[in-house]
Automatic annotation (TrEMBL):
Oligomeric form and interacting partners: Homodimer.
Highest taxon listed in the record's lineage: Bacteria
Pfam families: HATPase_c_3, HSP90
Region (C): 553-625
Keywords: ATP-binding, Chaperone, Cytoplasm, Nucleotide-binding, Stress response
Protein name: Chaperone protein HtpG
Subcellular location, record wording: Cytoplasm
Length: 625
């Protein structure tokens, strides 16, 4: 029979299919298996309306047969088959989908949905094959026909022999080249892996004869190699089962099988949504952070399935960054896929699913925080930093979603507490939520700046993550209570009598403080009497939006931002060190020595570097001799 040419637009599309539409060659097997599943589904639909046709699911399967000697890979199905006209129309005109036409004719029932929508997946076979041969016999027909093509050059259709209804596709696998190894698609282990990855949940058995070893009869510890037909796919996905029939162990096994992590998940979330968008999802909250979680290399995302067929391994659009720790999958039939079924069109369905998933995760975390506090704290130790970054990121857009999930160590409770728990314990006269930011809790507990707040009986939250203070600055307030650093210029707790006393001290020592400001020119904004110090001689406080801790963090960043806090050197005028300082106010050398020592002491308390350590040690030696 004479070779027929593809239509011009089909020829161009085929060339595109082979060279650029699909990003991974292994996709071809997913597409051909999906088409085979569609063909069996069509018989199922026919049986719904044809009393003469009985659908016995056990009679239907897909068979994969590699042949290394002939370099062929055969995909056989027991589906509805194609007539000569259907071979012509479905395979001769690219992007005219027989599945789509069938879908329009017959209403979907009983949860069975035709996968194929574009009619282009079949041609992905040409990415790995020089010749594609399709032999098909349609349901109700005694005749079979063979469609054969070597690619864009065209195709032939000829009569053929086939004993059973269904379709057989034979791919003549391309020879290896220096750049590409096509042999992998003839290897049993590779085919098994591809099927497990993309087609594990196809609803019909995918079978293959595999080599296995059996004990040799009559011989101890001897084995013989045999060929044995095995079913390679699970068929029934866990997410389509009723929640009531699944145990925690079932979910954990699924987590391990999918290699979502090497730990045991803290919590699973099983979603069956039937609202504006229909989808199933199983989500996991891991116990431990992946080794690359806080690096640029970490890739967030959920596995995305369309009717049980894996479309994307990591769909990042389904998770906000602050919930990027979540592992799992989503399966939906409502997704608008692009022509290669490899990527999503950004549409309303995807947005709705993502929004719903975000709310489900948030609810699960809130529930864990309320009912399983120990488990939540374990989660928070691993992923709390990401939640805090979520508060800070995108100009605080998500702060309302996340603020009730935050935990900080409390000076009073000596453990992690929520902002709500802190506020609920605040005395009536307390105006602010107080916090101290630094490298460690041990260092923060010793800060001179905490003395006055603790003496008032107020609780302090300890911030030890570099993102903490930035997140709180973005929150600004919680339940109408503003946040206040213990190192801020005005703590808002001084009595009028304290303020008057401090003002009097500053007036009395104005000349001395001015001289000290001159000595520390460029290092501090001012020197003043402290309202907060009780037992310590000196400390640094900050005025303005940038705190001393924020300055440290910004300077430590790779780009080394030169941002400085407006530092104030606070002097405890009731301390004996200040009396020694006053005694030498007329001795310029001694005053400079003592001032620099006090300033460097304040830097050390804050964990800031001393500009000249040698000079500092020399100054200490001077006062010792």
């Amino acid at each position: 029979m004479a070779k027929k040419q593809f239509k011009a637009e089909s020829k161009r599309l085929l060339e595109m299919m082979i060279n650029s539409i699909y990003t991974q060659r292994e996709i071809f097997l997913r597409e051909l298996i999906s088409n085979a599943s569609d063909a069996i589904d069509k018989i199922y639909y026919k049986a719904l309306t044809d009393d003469q046709l009985v659908f016995n699911k056990d009679d239907y399967f897909i068979k994969i047969t590699p042949n290394k000697a002939d370099r062929t890979l055969t995909i056989t199905d027991t589906g509805i088959g194609m007539t000569k006209e259907e071979l012509e129309n479905n395979l001769g005109v690219i992007a005219k989908s027989g599945s789509l036409a069938f879908k329009n004719e017959i209403e979907a029932k009983d949860g069975h949905n035709i996968i194929g929508q574009f009619g282009v997946g079949f041609y992905s076979a040409f990415m790995v094959a020089d010749v594609v041969t399709v032999t098909s016999r349609a349901l109700g027909s005694d005749e079979a026909y063979q469609w054969e093509s070597k690619g864009a050059d065209g195709y032939t259709i000829t009569p053929a022999e086939k004993d059973t209804v269904g379709t057989e596709i034979v791919l003549k696998i391309k020879p290896n080249t220096e750049e590409d190894q096509y042999d992998e698609f003839l290897e049993e282990y590779r085919l098994r892996a591809i099927i497990k990855k993309y087609s594990d949940f196809i609803r019909y058995p995918i079978k293959m004869d595999v080599k296995t070893q059996r004990p040799k009869e009559g011989a101890d510890n001897e084995f013989v190699e045999v060929q044995e037909e095995q079913t390679l796919n699970s068929m029934v996905p866990i997410w389509r089962k009723n929640k009531g029939e699944l145990t925690d162990a079932d979910y954990e096994n699924f987590y391990n099988e999918k290699r979502y992590g090497f730990d045991k998940p803290l919590k699973h979330i099983h979603v069956k949504a039937d609202g504006a968008v229909v989808y199933n999802a199983i989500l996991f909250i891991p116990e431990h952070t992946p080794f690359d979680y806080y690096t640029k290399e970490y890739e967030k995302g959920l596995e995305l399935y369309s009717n049980g067929v894996l479309i994307m391994e990591k769909c990042g659009d389904l998770l906000p960054d602050y919930f990027s720790f979540v592992k799992g999958m989503v399966d939906s039939e409502d997704l608008s896929l692009n022509i290669s079924r490899e990527m999503l069109q950004h549409d309303r369905q995807l947005t709705l699913i993502a929004k719903n998933i975000k709310n489900k995760i948030k609810s699960a975390l809130q529930s864990m925080l309320k009912d399983e506090r120990e488990k939540y704290e374990k989660f928070y130790q691993s992923f709390g930093r990401g939640l805090k970054f979520g508060v800070y990121n995108e100009y605080g857009m998500h702060k309302d979603d996340l603020q009730d999930l935050l935990l900080f160590t409390s000076s009073k409770e000596k453990k992690l507490v929520t902002l709500d728990e802190y506020v609920s314990r605040m005395p009536e006269d307390q105006k602010y939520i107080y916090y101290a930011a630094g490298d460690s809790i041990d260092r923060l507990e010793k800060l001179p700046q905490t003395e006055m707040v603790l003496d008032k009986g107020y609780e302090i939250l300890y911030f030890t993550d570099d993102v903490d203070e930035f997140a709180i600055k973005m929150l600004m307030k919680y339940k109408e209570k503003e946040f206040k650093s213990v190192s801020s210029g005005d703590l808002g707790i001084e009595s009028d009598a304290d303020k008057k006393e401090t003002e009097a001290e500053e007036n009395d020592n104005k000349e001395l403080f001015t001289a000290m400001e001159g000595i520390l020119a460029g290092k501090v904004k001012s020197v003043k009497a402290s309202k907060r110090l009780k037992s310590h001689p000196v400390c640094l406080s900050a005025e303005g939006e940038v705190s001393i801790e924020m300055e440290k963090i910004l300077k430590a960043m790779p780009n080394g931002q030169d941002v400085k806090a407006d530092k104030v050197l606070e002097i405890n005028t009731g301390h004996e060190v200040f009396q020694a300082l006053k005694a030498h106010k007329d001795d310029q050398d001694k005053l400079a020595l003592y001032t620099n020592l006090l300033y460097n002491q304040a830097l050390l308390i804050e964990g800031l570097p001393i500009a000249d350590p040698v000079e500092f040690t020399n100054d200490i030696c001077k006062i010792m001799v």
